[in-house]
Write the structure tokens for this entry.
Amino acid sequence: MESFIFLGFNLHAWITIVTVLGMFTILLFTKWRSDMVFLGAVGVLYVTGVLDAKTAFSGFGNTSVVTVGVLFVVVAGLMHTGVLQCIVRFLLGTPDNYRKAVVRLMLPVAVLSSFLSNTTVVSLFVNIVKMWAKKLNVSPSKLLIPLSYASGMGGVCTLIGTPPNLIISGLYEAKTDEAMNILSTTIPGLFCLAVGVLSVIAMRRLLPDRKAPENAFESASEYTVELQVPSDNPNIGKTLGEAGLYHVKGGSLIEMHHFDDTPMPITENEPVMGGDHLVYAGQIDELAELAYTHKLVSSDHHVFFYNELDNYSKLRTAYVTFTSSLIGTTIGGSTFEKDNNMVLAAVARSGERINEAPRKVVLKAGDTLLFVCPRNINLKTSTLQEDLHFFDSDAVPNIGYGTIISTIIMIAMVAVSALGILPLLQCAFLAAAAMLICRCCNMEQAMRAINWEILMVFAGSAVLGSAIQETGIAERLANGILDICGTNPIVVMTAICFVGTFVTEFISNTAAGAMFFPIMYQAAEKLGYEPFPFLIALMISVSSSFATPIGSPTHMLVYGPGGYRFSDFLRIGLLMNIIILAANIFIVNIIYPLTPLH
């Protein structure tokens, strides 16, 4: 194997290159779970002998990976004591113009994302921003992209704000035995954030003015109809299926009442009785035809409106995720409704309700779905969370003394780490223990808060970075970049950051950080400079993905609620990428001047 050399790479290097490219291809073009893809890539590198067992599985013991896992518990304490909800309630206010609204939104989101998972922050803000936009008489699409951008730019302001910062700082510590301060990226990050906020305001005309998808659902009484079975109906005694009242053209049967107001479970085998009330959702003209052909009469009222159906059921809005198994399928062609005890009432796409039978609509990523669900339905099942993202949860935390305690714990964790009293990992463990001891969250809530998929991706990314380093790929790429860019350190830094910004539009920013760390480190050393400033610039660049909705999980969270199209992100995002890259290189070289190696 040592004697095999092709284009300057040995066999182990080529196995690594093919594995990494294959992994990225799978992530881009399939719906496979990202954690399993990364685990598979690690397995290939181990089985083929590229990495030994200790190195191949070192990612699972990486201090940065453990730190992220422990921080999930800290975030759980903040969530369940209502800290985030409290901040949102008092910060947004009622600005009198769009410019002030952007500032009032992006700054607090960025601050929160500096210490918490940006996905968590955006999930909390999405519904609030939609209601706030209506209050301000602004389209939500004008505010939801800034929301997502703010969370990404805020995340780079501390080492714990975004996974790439942690993984790059962890790899740096492993190479140099020097730990980065938790606030190492704060000043450059804040400068880029300020530039980003001003850029969004200046380019506000590039933000789309889309109709909110749920607006198509607000007048639900216009497309729901309650029909009654008269006592002389010829279908009495038949089942719903036999009578042709279960699968109907142009709509869905979403509720049925027999003798009282209690809704009956809807099955194809439910018998039809005189006086039954049948509630359908769909196209009114088709449902009117159904009433005529099946000798049904109109009831004297509609059963539900947008916010309330009855004491037993509730309308809930969900968005089809980019990795959903529902993409390309119809609800009617699966057992989804039966398996999850819910009925699809309507589908909207790009802010417009689709005027055909909802159960026959072929679903796409970002589609907005309106479901009729029991009020006590569990929306946290693994199947539902993989396919749909619900924003209208009724879970409201109690705000009280726990809110103050969890806030103090969080501030203490950051302060102790920033002052260098204890390493970040120890601070995180102490903060997590304090959250549990002070009952800011219980053990079950803490365990549910840990996102094992993210941890697997994180661990796998660290191992890939090691493989790129050990097989000589990083050195060869660094030499290639130097051959093209020359020996000007700022030009080399800019070139690597530019490629990193582009790559992170299509792959996990964690993976991009791990992949580009050894390349940037090698390039800095070969130029004869301390790698630290180069790595700070890299941290910001791999988290600066603005041009595609798949570039960040937070973009995916706002894609459906904003009624966006793929091109909406591209139009403003490409300019944002260039602006933030320029701001990044400028401020990093001022705050951390390049220093020759000793």
About this structure: The chain is about 55% helix and 10% strand. Residues 99 and 201 are 6 Å apart (CA to CA).
